[in-house]
Amino acid sequence: xxxxxxxxxxxxxxxxxxxxxxxxxxxxxxxxxxxxxxxxxxxxxxxxxxxxxxxxxxxxxxxxxxxxxxxxxxxxxxxxxxxxxxxxxxxxxxxxxxxxxxxxxxxxxxxxxxxxxxxxxxxxxxxxxxxxxxxxxxxxxxxxxxxxxxxxxxxxxxxxxxxxxxxxxxxxxxxxxxxxxxxxxxxxxxx
Length: 191
Description:
This protein is of the alpha+beta class. 31% of the residues lie in helices and 8% in strands. It is built from 6 helices and 6 strands. Helix 1 packs across helix 2 (30-44).
């Protein structure tokens, strides 16, 4: 991980003021994700990385997911190209705020856990049914929202808990973007 990243964010937040009372409005902010790292460490006495490996990757069978601090083996990932030239491997290792490297098969196992209301394919409970339900609640409802948009109906951990194309045919869907400088990723879950 980026050494001292969470601590630097905490130090910078110590000199900030809230724009409004908590719950007044909903916006996406990576600082909240960053704070999960020291929170998990304080509560579990494990590093965030070790906790994710034990509590999420292992029960879901996500054997090809990692927090990479060294170059991935050539041929094990899709290279990004700019003007026909391969770009160097990208590292966004800020743990909870971004830094998991995964495969489509592993991410499918992650998505199946949500479709199974928090239960891993092998039967282990990863999240409570109530936690999964609460993650799918639109956090923008009842908040100050001068320009309402169904495209940004933030859930807990989700960029949106609506997807207009599927919503038009009566299917609820949650989305999360994992894009970086060189890569674009998108998960869509239709529970």
